[in-house]
Amino acid sequence: MSTEELKLNVEKALDEIRPFLQSDGGDISLLSIEEDKFVKVQLEGACISCSVNQMTLKSGVEMTIKKYAPQIEKVINVE
Question: In b/e form, how buried is each residue of 47-65, taking b as 16+ CB within 10 angstroms?
Answer without folding.
Answer: beebeebeebbeebbbebb
